[in-house]
Amino acid sequence: MTSTHLEINRRRALMTSAAIAASVMFPERAFAEETPRKGGIFTVHYGAEQRMLNPSLQASTGVYIIGGKIQEQLVDLDHAGKPVGVLAESWESTPDGRTITFHLRKGVTWHDGKPFTSADVAFTAMAMWKKILNYGSTLQLFLTAVDTPDAHTAIFRYERPMPMDLLLRALPDLGYISPKHLYDSGDIRQNPVNLAPVGTGPFKFTQYERGQFIIADRNPNYWRPNAPYLDRIVWRVVTDRAAAAVQVEAGQILYSGFSGLTISDTARLAKDKRFIVTTKGNEGNARTNTIEFNFRRKELADIRVRRAIAHAINVPFFIDNFLGDFAKPGTGPIPSVSTDFFPKDTGPQYAYDKAKAVKLLDEAGFKAGSGGTRFSLRLLPAPWGEDISLWATYVQQQLSDVGIKIEIVRNDGGGYLKSVYADHNFDLASGWHQYRNDPAVSTTVWYRSGQPAGAPWTNQWGWTDEKIDKIIDDAATEVDPVKRKALYGEFERRANEELPVWMPIEQIFQSVINAKARNHSNTPRWGSASWYDLWLAE
Amino acid sequence: MRLLSLVGRRLAASIPTLLLILIGLFLLLQFAPGDTVDAMMAQMGGGDAATAKSLREFYGLDLSVSAQLGNYLWRLARFDLGFSSIYGKPVLTVIAERLPATLLLMGAALSFAFFFGLVFGVIAARGVNKWPDTLISTLGLIFYATPSFWFGLMAIVVFSIYLQWLPAGGLEDITVMQTGLWRTLDIARHLILPTLTLGLIYLAIYLRIMRASMLEVLNLDFVRTARAKGLDDTRVVIKHVLRNALLPMVTLIGLQAGTMLGGSVVVESVFSLPGLGRLAYESVVQRDLNTLLGIVFASALVVIAVNLAVDIAYARLDPRITTGV
C-alpha cells in the first residue's frame, strides 16, 4: 500500500518536473535564433543582508548572489555540471595528490586596473581560505604552502593527499580570489573592501545602501569577449517574503532565488506565464530536512527507538500535502541529484509503518504509560524555512500516535545553533543539511566524531562510530575517484543503518524568474554564478 | 526663561530613566540564547569552532558580562555608541543612515492621521448620531481593526499590481538615478502607500478621541454663552470648542511618537523601507547588542524631544498651564 502510494507520487513528480523542464527549455528554444541584446537592468531579490560581500571570506548563498558577480573563482561548474576554468585555465595533480598546479589566465585585471597574478591566489588561499573562510578552513587544513614560480602559475602543496576531484568540486564555492594589494595590510575582517568588493568579474561594485539596495555596473574591461550583456544589476533588500512576491509580480524584482518566496506565493506565480518557477540552476544547492537525535537521552541512544521514530512518520503524505512538487523523499545524507556520489545501494530505508514502530518501541522496553504516553521529547526546529516549522508540527502529531509526546521549542537562528550545537540542550532537532557537491565539504562532519562543541551543523549528537570515522578519513585522502565513490557508498549505508541523523526529505531550492530573462538557470549553481551571459529580452 | 528651565528639568529627569532602560536591556539580552557569532554562523551556513573562537575575540565577547557592560557604559559616558557587529560601522553612522526614512515616514503618517482625525472627528461630532457620524465611526472601526501588514499588502496588490499607479516598495526608484525636485517627488510617490497604511490605524484613534472630546466640550457652559452671544455655529466650533478639544489629541501624539517608531517594523518590512524598526528587529535576531542599545538610546531621545514639544504646545493651546504652575 505504501509502495503504490510512493510510485504514484514519484510518477507525478517526474511528470511535473518534465513539464517544468519543458517550460524552461521552451522559451530558450523559441528564442534560440534571437541575438542576445545588450543593456538592461536586472533586479534581484535580496532577503538577508550579510556582514560581508566577499566570497573568499564567507561561503554562503547570501554572499555569492552578490559577490559571485563581482569576484571570480579559479574554477566554476559548466552547463553540464563539470568543472570549467575561470581564473585558472588548466590544472594538474601529481599522482600522490600532494602537489596541485593551477595555470592561471593571462591578461585579467582587477576592477581597479591592477593585474591579476599568482600572488593574489597564494595570498587568498593562505590568508583567507585556510584561516577565515567557513568550510574553506576545513578543506584546506593540510595546505602547507602555495608556491608562485611565475606570475601565472600557482602550486598548492599539501601535507596529506588532496583528491583532485574533491578540490575541483569544492572550488566553485570555496575558490574565490581576492586582490592581495587591497588586503595586504590591516585586519582582513575589518577591511572596508569586504562591503565594497573589488574583483575580476563581469560586474563592478558601485554602491551599497544598507537596508535598501546594492548596485553593480557592467565591467567594460571584462576578460571574456562581448560580455556581460547587462548594464547593471540591482539587488533590492526585501526582508518580507510576501512583499517580495508582490514586487516580483509588479516587475520591480526580476529574480528571487534560493526559495526566497513563500511556498504558496511560489505555487501561485508558477501558474503565471510572466514568470518561470524552476529548481533548475539550483542542483548544486541540494538540501535535506533532518531529524537529529541526542544520544544523551537514553531512549534515543537505543537504535530501535530511532528506527521506530522514522517508521512512525509518513513522509510522502507530508511532501504531497505541504511541500508540493519541489521535494521528494530523501534516501540519506547523499542526495540523489549528486550523480557523482549517489550510490546504487543506499542501505536501509524506513518506510511508513506504524505497527512496526509500535513493535520496536515495545521491544525497546518503553511501554505506554497512563494516557498512552511512552516518553516525552523536546523538538527544536530551526527557524530557516517554513517547511521546517510545518515539518516539526507534523512530526509532533505523527509521534503522538505512537505514544511519544513532543514539546516543540522554537528559537531564532542564534538561539537554535547555541542550544543544539554548543549546549546540546535538545532531544530532537530539525533543520537542513546542505550538500555542497562533494560529501567531504559539509556532509561528513555531520557523522565524524570528535567535532568540538559549538561547531554548527556537525556531529554533536554524542554518537561515536569507529567504522564511519574510518570510512570518512579514508575517503578524504583517497585520490582515486572510483574508490572514493565506493567509500562514500559505504558511508551512506552505514549512516542509514545507525541513523544518528535521519534525512527523510530531499529538496532543491526554487528560483522565480521573470520570463524576459535569457540564459538563466543554465548551470547547477546559477544563482551564485557570475551571470556574464545573462541577458534581458525586450 | 521659564521655557528653558522646563527643558532643563525635563532633560535632567530623563537621564536616570535612560540609564535604567539601557542597563535593563543589556541584561535582558544576555538571557537570550546565542550571541552575535552564533547568529553570524547561522547566516553563513556553517563554520568550524576555531573560526567561532577567533570571531568571539574579534567582537570582544570573550569578556565577562559585567566587563562588557562596564565597557559599554564607559564608552557611552564619552558619547561613543560603539561599533555595530553586523554593519561593521560605528553605531552612530548606522542609525544616522536609517533615521531620515523613519522620521519621514513617521512625520508623514502622524500629520496625516492628526489632520484627518481632527477633520473627521469634528464632522462626526457635529452630526452626532446622524449618517456622517455613523459612516465615519464605522470606517474608523474598520481601519482600527485591520492588521497593518494585510492592509499594506492589499494596497500594493491594488495600486501597484492591478492599477500600476504606485511603486510596490522601496524608498526611491533605483533603476533611474534622479536628483533634486524629481527625486523628492519620487520619494513622495514611494511614501504614499506606507503613509496611508501606517496612518490609517492612528487616524481611527484620533478621530474617536476628537469626536468624544468635541462632544464633551460642546456641552460646557462657555459654549452655551458663546451661542447666546449670537455667534454662528461654525465660529463657535472653530474659535471656542476646537481649541479646548485639541488638548487630549496633543497628549496622544506625545504618547504615540514612541510607539510609531517601533510600530513601523511591519510597515517598513512590507514596503521594504530602510527604517529604524527593521534595524532594531535585525539587531535582535543578529544579537547586535551595540546597535540595539544605540537604537533604544536614539528612540528614547526622540520620545523625550516629542514630549517636550507637546508640553510647549499645551502652553500655547491653554495659557492656564504655564501661568498656573
Describe the structure.
The complex is a heterodimer of chains A (538) and B (325). Chain A has helices spanning 2-30, 61-70, 118-129, 136-139, 164-174, 180-183, 241-249, 263-270, 298-301, 303-312, 315-323, 354-363, 386-400, 413-422, 439-442, 466-476, 481-498; strands spanning 41-46, 75-77, 83-85, 88-93, 99-104, 143-150, 153-158, 203-209, 213-218, 232-237, 255-256, 275-278, 286-293, 327-329, 375-381, 404-408, 428-430, 432-434, 501-508, 511-514, 517-518, 535-536. By secondary structure, chain A is an alpha+beta fold. In chain A, strands 13, 14, 15, 16, 17, 18 and 19 form a 7-stranded mixed sheet that branches. In chain A, strands 1-10-9-8 form a 4-stranded mixed sheet, with helices on one face. Chain B is mostly helical and 325 residues long. Chain B is globular. The model of chain B has no long low-confidence stretch (mean pLDDT 84). The interface between A and B is large, with 63 and 56 residues.
Would you spell out the secondary-structure blueprint of this structure?
The complex is a heterodimer of chains A (538) and B (325).
Chain A: H1 2-30, E1 41-46, H2 61-70, E2 75-77, E3 83-85, E4 88-93, E5 99-104, H3 118-129, H4 136-139, E6 143-150, E7 153-158, H5 164-174, H6 180-183, E8 203-209, E9 213-218, E10 232-237, H7 241-249, E11 255-256, H8 263-270, E12 275-278, E13 286-293, H9 298-301, H10 303-312, H11 315-323, E14 327-329, H12 354-363, E15 375-381, H13 386-400, E16 404-408, H14 413-422, E17 428-430, E18 432-434, H15 439-442, H16 466-476, H17 481-498, E19 501-508, E20 511-514, E21 517-518, E22 535-536
Helix pairs in contact in A: 10-12, 16-17
Chain B: H1 2-31, H2 36-44, H3 49-58, H4 65-77, H5 91-126, H6 131-145, H7 148-162, H8 180-218, H9 221-228, H10 233-263, H11 265-270, H12 276-285, H13 289-317, H14 320-324
Helix pairs in contact in B: 1-13, 5-6, 5-8, 5-10, 5-13, 6-8, 7-8, 8-10, 9-10, 10-13, 12-13
